[in-house]
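Supplementary material to the annual report.
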Amino acid sequence: MVLAAGDYAREVCKRPAWIRGIDHRIEAQYPGARDLTKSSSTAIAAEKAGVGKGGVDVAEVYAPFTHQELIVLDALKLPAGAEVNPSGGALAAHPIMSAGLIRMGEVASRIHAGEARRGVAHATSGPCLQQNLVCVLEGA
Amino acid sequence: MSNACAIVGIGQTKYDTKRIDVSLAGLVREAAVRALEDAGLTFRDIDAVVLGKAPDTFEGVMMPELYLADALGALGKPMMRVHTAGSVGGSTAIVVASLIQAGIHERVLTVAFEKQSESNAMWALSPRIPLQPTVVFGAGGYFAPLIRAYIRRSGAPENTGVLVALKDRQNANRNPFAHLQMPGVTYDDIANSPMLWDPIRYHETCPSSDGAVAMVMTTESLAKKAPTRPAWVHATAMRSEPTAFAGRDQVNPQAGKDCAKALYAQAGITDPMAQIDVAEIYVPFSWFEPMWLENLGITPENEGWKPVQEGATALGGKLPINCSGGVLSSNPIGASGMIRFAEAAMQVRGQAGEHQVDGAKIALGHAYGGGSQFFSMWIVGSEKP
Amino acid sequence: MSDAPKEIVKRIETPIHLTFQFTPGVGASRFLRGIAEGRILGLRCTQCAKVYVSPRGSCPKCGAPTLDEAKVTDRGTITSFSIVRVPSEGIDIELPFVCASILLDGADNTFYHVIREVPVEDVRMGMRVEAVWVPREELRASLESIRHFKPTGEPDAPFDSYKEHL
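Predicted assembly:
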């Protein structure tokens, strides 16, 4: 992925995907010290990144197991109508350390193509969703 | 124009061969708590935690930030880990500076550590891949031929390395945190120590250490409320280059030269020897002091050995280097770069105790890693830039 | 239960063992195939024309692919070296030995290998050396097919001829 600032991004890209908010949070190491039905770190990151400040056309979440997708979507508080994991998500391809960046790339590609105006990308690390990142991307 | 960034808290652990009195978590916490106390803060006041750490094989703990989040009070906060080989401690401090300068966070705790006794760093540093014969073991085996090349090229007197080692060992005796303490060490002790990787003698090498260092960095407005004098970040720079390419000068790598040039331009330094009061540079083998003096543009090429021979890099000299005893006296690898950065900050805060350079106002912190290929540097000052 | 203080548990041994399946990639595969046949293959950068031995498929300086094969011999020059006098875990070479940085004739980069069949005190920068291979039937796709290097007896190369390769 190539990131660029302001005018340079406008110059080299017809429809840049702007990072409007990005935040990440960590939880306790031991799964037994957490409520595993919720993802509190995703919820904080989603709020700080400003997920709820507008509509969401597309979301790519990093959920290597099906139940994790439900937990993460719950924490993201996505508005109705968002398309989730059109790429097939981590269930379809899972090179672990790239899987989070792929989510951002997939959302950005939708914006580049003019198929989405606002999207949310999510990444996770650690056992049972210990650490989570949320990024809000927007077209012009 | 970016915001000002200040260092308001510094904490170090005692460095030692085996810190089996504490776990990995206990080790990083020891440094973190000391840095917070120095800053007059608690974990609650911290916005984010940034961890610096060399390869995971050094302790056998994969992604240690996940394990150490609890001990560093990071729950519910942003936490990230930085990894740029031996230079990581420096790079980590620069990442934190950029988080403050960009206005993303107001108070960041940063910690760098290594607990070498938990694994075998020599093994971890010895690659066994089919594209390389398995003949080079550890950093000493890798760097010794470069030192020989430097001696040949510069015509440096053969005792230059001994002089650097003697100075750093004497400096370490003034630093209670230093791993190696050699009271009464003499020139002959160093010169007569056995050759390990000829031309590197035993007392010209760094030890394997356990230890951690922590810093609290903050914004201008919060720094002004700090209980002790802050150190201000005047400039930061990082550069890297591939391990091997045709015509690569490994003795005086281009990336290091470019890094220093960018750093001085930011800090407004035109004559580093005159304008820098004290420097902490990453010297794991004695000969790297003259080599880095050249790479940093402090002396012309092939003349880095001259200030060493003249005593200019000793405490009380024109540009004292590694007053803490340096990497030669304490080497918890992942922390070693940040110790250099922290010691530079301690000097301009007037906090360095027995190894303080009187009236130090501008200090250089330097770290390198990999096959002399990752460089990170900062200039800190006693006054806001 | 006794209130007497117990000694703390200081160390627990936790062995970790991993076997990796290393994928050399297209460029290195050609090189390793050559080694298995007892010859050293260099690959030339399509941009700067430098020849790499033990090529990885791209030029580290230009980032361009190294596509064309170049003739490299198994003779070269010692550009620098160290005399290893300290044992290391997993290394079974008799001490002391010389670990040298070698520039092969026809190549533009150096690599480390062991120098043998000469007293360590006699090894010099600029000394000319050649590869000593394992017997033909033991050749395989690994640099360990070259046992070590030994002096050729040729006159030393002048410093200027390798000073750009330190």
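Chains A and C do not touch (no CB pair under 8 Å).
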